[in-house]
Write a structure and sequence with these properties.
single chain; Dihydrodipicolinate Reductase, domain 2; nine-stranded mixed beta sheet; 17 strands; 30% helix; globular; disordered N terminus
Length: 441
């Protein structure tokens, strides 16, 4: 049975169906720039790539009053669409100058600039949308979650599949007990599709005239420009991206996270191709151990990238036609969802898909954020209760990857309450990274 009513009561029923609680913002704490019926005033940080569609969504839902991009080509293209918007190359300057002219901010930059840009917006009580992964480091994810709650703003991470009917139904099917007690989750991806396992480029290259390189580097340690980083190849570098895991797991792990309340693993261990501390490995297999939580048993979750796959027997003879997907293994049977966004699924092992499944259909991912800004229920992928914990979990995998530089790393014991790798203090600099002068969290 599909619930389409958008009331607060039905929204909270979703939390019961998916096994998670949702923090509800006090929208009265945050003033809009004009009357409650006025257009939402948006400032968009990063307007190329995914930022192109994110800023277009803002224009569809309100008024884009400012745009920021370090690449003058992308900025000029977006300025043609929003000619009244003020143009900036530095998000710090933009947010400092605009003040009350802005209600909400989108952040669609490379990963390393997500947190410092969003933190400024949140501290200035701006509603905030940040592309996945929410942050580059574990500590940043915790800080943004806390800032969102402290400042009473509407937040959302850009893992758009959260709004998919198929994903929500699959999560509800698992919650309803169709698989029985779940013991294993397996997720794989076709990433990386960019260079990884490579050394830092040594060639001296001039900075293109259209690129503001210092602002692109942002909070990361400064290095000379090279086209190996920009455009669109930065994901494989530890200083800028989050590798295959950070790029895709906010999508591909989304459904089992929602279904099983997969928060705060107690240990993580990775096996990888060797890496040099400059770029992520060409492949990785990562094991997460989640303890019993709210009555569900302990669960082992395994992530595969770079061409690695789960054992074939888990598919029970079903042909794999996708290069990414998810398997949730229970005592009664298995749920198999091919692809990145859990749009479809099938049940393996002779179990039937229940006809009556209680969940809430989304009005649309971006629309959930707009509804929250206007005083409605929070978006499902809000920072404090959903996007923050999901991001923390995912980036813990990279902590284990760093520890596995020579192949198989030691099992990292994780103290979630204190954000500490309790048996590996040498990894604390990966949990919490240092910012370059001029940038703060």
């Amino acid at each position: 049975m599909l619930k389409k009513n958008k009331s607060r009561r039905d929204f909270l029923k979703l939390s019961a169906a998916t096994g998670v609680g949702y923090w509800v913002s006090n929208s009265s704490e945050v003033a809009r720039s004009e009357s409650p019926n006025a257009q939402i005033q948006f400032a968009c940080i990063g307007v190329s790539g995914k930022g192109d569609s994110d800023s277009n969504d803002c224009g569809r839902m309100g008024k884009v009053v400012a745009i920021c991009d370090v690449d003058e080509r992308g900025l000029a293209k977006k300025a043609a669409r929003f000619p009244e918007a003020k143009k900036y190359f530095d998000y710090r300057t933009m947010l400092d100058e605009l003040g009350d002219e802005v209600d909400a901010v989108t952040v669609s930059t490379p990963d390393h600039n997500h947190a410092p840009a969003a933190a400024i917006a949140l501290r200035n009580k701006k509603h905030c949308f940040v592309q996945k992964p929410m942050t580059q480091s574990i500590h940043e994810a915790r800080v943004l979650s806390e800032l969102a709650q402290e400042n009473g703003v509407a937040t959302m991470m850009g893992n758009q599949g959260t709004a998919n009917t198929g994903l929500r139904r699959a999560a509800a099917v698992i919650q309803q007990g169709a698989l029985g007690k779940v013991s294993e989750v397996h997720v794989w991806t076709n990433r990386p599709i960019w260079p990884q396992g490579i050394d830092r480029p040594q060639e001296k290259m001039p900075v293109p005239k259209w690129l503001h390189w210092d602002q692109w580097i942002g909070p990361s340690p400064f290095r000379a420009y090279h086209p190996a980083y920009h455009p669109e190849k930065w994901r494989g570098f530890w200083d800028f991206g989050t590798g295959a895991l950070g790029d895709m797991a906010c999508h591909t792990v989304n459904m089992p996270f929602m279904a099983l309340d997969l928060k705060d693993p107690t240990s993580i261990q990775a096996e990888t191709s060797t890496h040099n501390g400059e770029t992520y490995p060409s492949w990785a297999v990562i094991d997460f151990e989640f303890p019993e939580r709210h009555g569900r048993p302990p669960i082992k979750f395994t992530w595969y990238d770079g061409g690695k796959r789960p054992p074939q027997h888990l598919f029970q003879g079903v042909e794999q036609t996708k290069t990414s997907g998810c398997l949730v293994v229970g005592e009664k049977g298995t749920l198999f969802s091919p692809g990145d966004y859990a749009e479809t699924y099938q049940l393996l092992g002779g179990i039937e898909d229940p006809a009556d499944v209680d969940f809430v259909e989304s009005p649309g991912h971006f629309e959930e954020w707009i509804r929250a800004i206007d005083g409605g229920p929070p978006a499902v992928s809000n920072f404090p209760e959903y996007a923050g914990p999901l991001t923390e979990n995912i980036l813990l995998g990279n902590l284990a990857v760093w520890a596995a530089a020579e192949g198989t790393g030691k099992k990292i014991e994780w103290d979630a309450a204190n954000l500490k790798p309790s048996n590996a203090p040498e990894l604390e600099s990966i949990v919490k990274r240092e910012y370059r002068h001029g940038y703060v969290l």
